[in-house]
Amino acid sequence: MFKLKFKIFLFIIFFTSALLANEVNINPNHVYFFPKQADEAKDKIIELINNSKDSIEISMYNFSYKKLAKELVKASKRGVEIKVVLDKEKVKDDNDIYKYLKDNDIKVIIPDKKLHTKIAIFDNETALIGSLNWTKESFEENYEILLLSNDKKTILDMSDFFNNFNIR
User: What is the pLDDT of residues 89-140, one digit of tens each?
Assistant: First the structure.
């Protein structure tokens, strides 16, 4: 009986160690390179929007991609708190997305200073940052890079950006 209990104990330790080892080796970051991975990245963004339960924070220099705006509106209607920060000059040039989001009760903020960031944070668990504007052209025509991160420190630092610039 002792040998059986000891074998079970060793198996549990081995199994737990293997699980923990896998957790440690998981890379909290993934990089998408455009145009090659543009569709994959777009699908991931839509998945993140659709799977968000509590909050989405976006700071986007140029946002004109109606498909992504529609997904944000759907998430908002599910009860997800959404804040979108847009560049003042870009909104002056093209305010369709701004009006669409505002008309659908999404909080849209226009800071006084030029906003050139491209950041999105989903449920304070996953963040996106890179050169990618949320425009159809960026997904279809441009060379872009997009970093997806689940790294807690990276997300905290990015979230601090929203606090430090008083855009929450």
Answer: 999 888 999 999 999 999 999 998 899 999 999 999 999 999 999 999 999 9
Alpha carbon distance 13, 155 (integer Å): 32
**For residue range 15-67, what is the model confidence (pLDDT) as tens digits?**
555 444 444 445 689 999 999 999 999 999 999 999 999 999 999 999 999 99
Cis peptide, bond prior to residue 111, ω within 30 of zero: no
66: Cβ contacts below 8 Å, ≥ 6 apart: 96, 97, 100
Q: Which CATH architecture is the domain 28-164 placed in?
A: 2-Layer Sandwich (3.30)
Q: What one-character DSSP code corresponds to residue 63?
A: B
The number of C-alpha atoms within 13 Å of 110 and in the hemisphere containing its C-beta is 14
In whole angstroms, give the CA distance from residue 132 to residue 139.
Answer: 8
The rounded distance, in Å, linking the Cα atoms of 19 and 102 is 45
- Calpha distance 48→69 (Å, rounded): 13
